[in-house]
Amino acid sequence: MDNVVKAIGEEQIKKFIKILQEYKDGKKNLEFKIIANEQFWKLRHWDYEDEDGRIVKRNPATAWLWNTIVSKHADMMDSYPEPSILPRESDDEQEAETLSSILPVILEQNDFKQIYDDVCWYYLRQGAGIFGIFWDNSTPLGDIAIKKVDALNLFWQPGITNIQNSRYLFHTELIDSDIIKSQYPELENVNLSEDGYVAKYLYDDNVNTSDKCTVVDVYYKKKINGKTVLHYCKFTGTHVLFATENETEPQTDSEGNIISEALSETGWYNHGKYPFVFCSLYDVEGTPFGYGFTDIFKDTQISIDEINGAIVKNTKEGARRRIYVSDRVNCNEEELTNIECEVVHCTGDPGDGIKEIVTNPLSSIYVNFLNNQISMLKETSGNRDVNNGGTQSGVTAASAIAALQEQGNKGSRDIVSHMYEAYRDICYQVIELIRQFYDAPRKFRITGTDGKSRYASYNNSNIKPIYQGNGYGFDMGYRVPEFDIDVKAAKQTSYSKMAQNELMLQFYQLGFFNPQQATMTIACMKGMDFQGKNEIMKTIEQNGTILSMFMQLYQTAIGLASRFEPMLVPALQQIGVQAGVVTNSVMPSVDSDIKETDPNGNVVSNEHPWVQRARENAQNTSPA
Q1: Is the pLDDT of residue 151 over 80?
Q2: Cβ atoms within 10 Å of 282's Cβ, excluding its own
Q3: Which of 571, 540, 543 is nearest to 557 (CA)?
Q4: By the 8 A CB rule, do 264 and 256 touch?
Q5: Contact present, 276 and 131 (Cβ < 8 Å)
Q6: Over the stretch 505-534, which tens digit does the pLDDT of each residue have?
Q7: Contact criterion met (CB below 8 Å) for 550 and 515
Q8: Could you give the CA distance from residue 622 to residue 79 in angstroms, rounded to a whole number?
């Protein structure tokens, strides 16, 4: 076995390193932009080091751009997504419902809300957010891991727009050398070091990387038997730590049973995609990484800072008293500069040698220009006052505020929709990893809409490829259950909730929830659009159906009671009044004088048939 030539060895690693360096050179401008944008986010873009190495600011930094990003991030978190799995075929309805319950649990186990929060910050600041969806073998059964990925650690083929089209994809990470050596004993005597692939942020802390080494994960695709296969290799320096192409033996379980083909044939992930999802804020041709709010508004922010700095400087100069003192006048400078000192002693003529320096105040045009720059940034970014809680005079109703916010949030809805598309791709990859790896049952605690918890066991047996057998003399092959993913906001803003509550109160006042008006209400709602419309229409329709069934049973009960138990009729009528389905004015009445008739109009007696038959027999046997 030791003499077997492996597909991935030192020569192939050197080839990977060469390609990685080419990809890094192609990403140099992006790395410079990301580092500079991070300085803007920290309000450090005016910082520089003086001769003594101290950090000095050229201008005071204002936070208008910072506030824009914070406001947009709040909009994104208000629209935090949740998935709904929809089947493409009726046979998969139960499985789709189960996945809709367990998928949020898997995301919660990964602390996905915090990951989503971090990626949103990066997405708005830098122009793209990147998620990584991996299979983690560190636990006995293994499980799905979702992580935020820094663009400085990822390298792709220059010139491509869709990350899945990159020939290779490299992910680098700095790890302590002693940890790597403990995991891979064959590296014990190898000198490991940082390779310098990753550009570094301008950290506030002094980050020492001398005891770390660079570990590289490279993903690449190959065509095997007409199918795209994703291969994976992990290396450090020129040493192979793992490579799927080197795994030529079939995979077995703990008992030695073959469970799948060799990784050299199947690849790393069966879905055949790179385990990274990009979400670009504003697209740029020739790169999967877009541009963000910092790129768009940094020039405006610089102008605001410069003008604000000039106004601040002029204000300081005008507020501070400064004096010219001629050499011809000998004065006590300590008394002169002390504004608390009422008497200043001097030798010579003060009028001849002491003159106050007068600072001319800036014209109001500069202040107006500053305000115009601020307004331009707010208007262009869509970060208007109403989005931050301020409104025009007289606007106090929650519905009116929500309407103004909704009108001003078109840009926010657009950037949220981009993130929803990425979220949908994440869910697809999670489902594919479940399909591939969840052979053993997993336990999940699921919280229902009623707040109660239930426990479910789940494995991938129902979503694996299903053999269809033979039909019409042909092998029908395998059917793979496929699903669609619908993404919606998990919660609403406070104002939108208040507006929704006001809408429901209006519906109540108009009688929309009266079951007797169900038909008219549904006809009206079909032309409306609001959150939760389908659920409300379904409830109203069900109430209308229940009312109709109740009325039928109620009329039947009244009829039977009128005929056999007239004494029960008033009580039944009172029940109808209490239930609100009848009123006193339309209450069914019972007339004891009303007689039943046959089809010929003859009166039919209410006597029991046995009594009628006995009377007829007695009459027939009586003498004439």
Answers
A1: yes
A2: 15
A3: 571
A4: no
A5: yes
A6: 888 888 888 887 888 888 888 877 776 777
A7: no
A8: 93
The closest of 177, 246, 252 to 213, measured between CA atoms, is: 177
Task: Determine how many CB atoms are found less than 10 A away from the CB of residue 369.
Answer: 15
d(C-alpha 420, C-alpha 485), whole Å:
10
Q: How far apart are CA 440 and CA 456, in angstroms?
A: 13
Side-chain-side CA neighbours of residue 394 (13 Å): 0
Query: DSSP states of 341-370 as a string?
Result: -S---EES-HHHHEEEEPPPPPPHHHHHHH
Task: Please give the structure tokens belonging to residue 580.
Answer: 């609100």
What count of Cα atoms within 13 Å lies in the side-chain half-sphere of residue 238? 7
Mean pLDDT over all residues of the chain? Answer: 80
CA distance readout (Å), 466 to 101, 262, 598: 23, 21, 66
Residue type, 230: L
Greater model confidence, 494 or 559: 559
**The two three-digit tokens of residue 445, written as one number:** 């605690």
What CA–CA distance (Å, rounded) separates 416 from 36? 25
Record the tokens describing residue 467, joined without a space.
Answer: 């053999």
Q: What percent of the chain has pLDDT over 70?
A: 79
Q: pLDDT by residue (tens digit) across 216-252?
A: 999 999 988 888 899 999 999 889 999 999 988 887 6
Task: Report which DSSP code applies to 428.
Answer: H
- Confidence at 405, pLDDT banded by 50, 70, 90: low
Q: Cα separation of 365 and 367, whole Å?
A: 5
Q: Tokens 């069914």 label which residue?
A: 588
357 versus 553: which is more confidently predicted?
553
pTM comes to: 0.73
| pLDDT tens digits, one per residue of 418-468 | 999 999 999 999 999 999 998 888 888 877 666 677 888 888 888 888 777
What count of other Cβ atoms lies within 10 Å of the Cβ of residue 523? 9
Joined together, the tokens standing for residue 452 give: 């109660």
Residues 6+ apart with CB under 8 A from 522: 537, 540, 541, 544
Residues 6+ apart with CB under 8 A from 236: 180, 187, 192, 213, 214, 215, 216
pLDDT in tens, 165-193: 999 999 999 998 889 888 898 888 888 87
Report the alpha-carbon distance of residue 119 to residue 129 in Å, rounded.
5
The answer to whether the CB of 260 falls within 8 A of the CB of 251 is yes
Cα four-point dihedral sign 580, 581, 586, 590? negative
For 411, the token pair is 């840009």
Q: Can you point out the beta strands (E) in 338-464?
A: 346-347, 354-357, 442-447, 453-458
The 3-state DSSP class for residue 12 equals helix
Residue 170: its H or E element: strand 168-176
**Mapped to the 3 state alphabet, what secondary structure does 517-574 carry?**
HHHHHHHHHCCCCCCCHHHHHHHHHHHHHHHHHHHHHHHHHHHHHHHHCHHHHHHHHH
Q: Contact 123/247 with Cβ under 8 angstroms?
A: no
CA neighbours within 13 Å on the CB side: how many for 592?
A: 5
Tens-place pLDDT, residues 137-149: 888 888 999 999 9
Q: How confident is the model at residue 22 (pLDDT cuts 50, 70, 90)?
A: very high
> Do residues 427 and 485 make contact, with C-beta atoms less than 8 angstroms apart?
yes
Cite the DSSP H helix spans in 209-357. 263-266, 293-319, 333-337, 350-353
Pairing state between β 603-604 and 596-597: antiparallel
